[in-house]
Amino acid sequence: MKSFHSSDVVVIGGGASGCATAYYLSKKGASVTIVEREGIATQASGYSAGMLNPLTGIGIPGGLQNLAKMSFRLHQELWNSLIDETGFNFHPEKVSTIDLLFEESEIPSLENIRKTYETEDGFESYWLEKSELDAIKPSLSPEVKKGLYTWGNCSLDSMILTKAFANSAMNLLGFLITGNVTGIESQGGRVTAVITRDGKIDCGAVVFASGPWSAEGEEWLNICIPVTPLKGQIIRTKLQSVETQPSHDFNGSGISLYRKRDGLIWVGATEENVGFDQSQTAEAKRHLLTNAIRIMPEIKNSEVVIHTVCLRPITPDWLPIIGKAPGWENVWLNTGAGKKGILLCPAMGKATADLVVSDNTDVPIQGFDPIRFQ
Ligand SMILES: Cc1cc2nc3c(=O)[nH]c(=O)nc-3n(C[C@H](O)[C@H](O)[C@H](O)COP(=O)(O)OP(=O)(O)OC[C@H]3O[C@@H](n4cnc5c(N)ncnc54)[C@H](O)[C@@H]3O)c2cc1C
């Protein structure tokens, strides 16, 4: 097969993981080519809720904690220069959130969250009594008993962030190819080219950042890459009166309400183990709306403007896969970020770029080596 392009590094996948990797690689002077079959940020990286919460979630506290904190810091360090350099404003901002309690039994777990926030620089958290919650507009459900206010997490537009990373890489030695990678060519433990329908792309190294589809590479590399999809649906609703836009984000009744810059309230998200199915379902819409109305009855009078569906890349231990592909000299995996891929993309991208270029990184990636699944 004829080659039509060559690059120091080929990154397979133009989501947040792949584009952040390309960004850091290009800053290190590598020529990098992103091969993406659908378009930059057309999958989960374009339709996530865009929340950066480094203090709670699966693996925090635990194996993900240090990576999450470092990534949160890297985000804030690069935002201004990335926006200035590319003109892509992904509108990062700090957010306030209230976790609403419907049952007294929820108090202990939320009290743990309060203590965590209280001790972390740049964050705060305190309890709100029912009388304080009653003053919030639009009104919350009378069923709500108490609330935990937190401040310090961030929110951004993950589609624009991902495009900004890609754009920055393109402004240096980056290249974008729209194509579906269908295999590799190799010689003596080294990948020499990736294969697309249009021909092959010669390369010095390859990064697999293909999100929920990463397991496609198992056959090509003869290793285990146990990443599976977890479907998530979000609805974006428009309240009838703009004056009643809420003053905080809310969590409760198994869902979240996010105030977004598009003037809509995003209600998310479902978690469905249904393979690669990406259809919108009436059942999910009903579930999200019912619970949103349970939090804020005013949502009954809202209109659902957009309904999105995308897939999270999940691993068996809910930790990402970052590191060299076992048995290969020049193949790297950067995938499996699960429910935190937007938060984690700078740290995962930097770690991967460091490893590709110098086999060493200051990013805390202990516990994420692909070898654990072989
Ligand atoms: C509903 C929902 C809400 C979320 N909210 C948040 C949040 O608030 N905060 C947060 O941090 N995370 C959130 N996430 C998780 C986050 O969106 C994902 O972890 C992250 O987007 C994964 O990025 P990725 O680049 O690994 O994968 P993707 O974004 O899926 O990108 C992978 C890309 O690879 C391409 N590809 C795959 N195979 C090939 C191939 N063979 N050839 C060429 N291209 C290929 C695909 O087309 C795709 O574009 C959310 C996820 C969902 C579903």
Which keywords apply here?
eight-stranded mixed beta sheet; 2 domains; FAD/NAD(P)-binding domain; single chain; 374 residues; 9 helices; D-Amino Acid Oxidase, Chain A, domain 2; alpha/beta; binds flavin-adenine dinucleotide
CATH topology call of the largest domain:
FAD/NAD(P)-binding domain
How much helix, percentage-wise, in residues?
A: 25-40%
Question: Which structural class do you get from the secondary structure elements?
Answer: alpha/beta
Low-confidence stretches: none
What CATH architecture of the largest domain would you give?
3-Layer(bba) Sandwich
Beta-strand segment tally? 17
Give the name of the CATH superfamily of the largest domain.
FAD/NAD(P)-binding domain
* Bound ions, cofactors and other small molecules, one mention each: flavin-adenine dinucleotide
Count of DSSP H/I helices: 9
SSE arrangement, N to C: EHEHEHEHEHEHEEEEHEEEEHEEEH
Task: Estimate the mean pLDDT confidence.
Answer: 96
Whole-number tally of structural domains? 2
Overall spatial form: elongated
CATH class of the largest domain: Alpha Beta
* Share of residues in strands: 25-35%
Radius of gyration: 21 Å
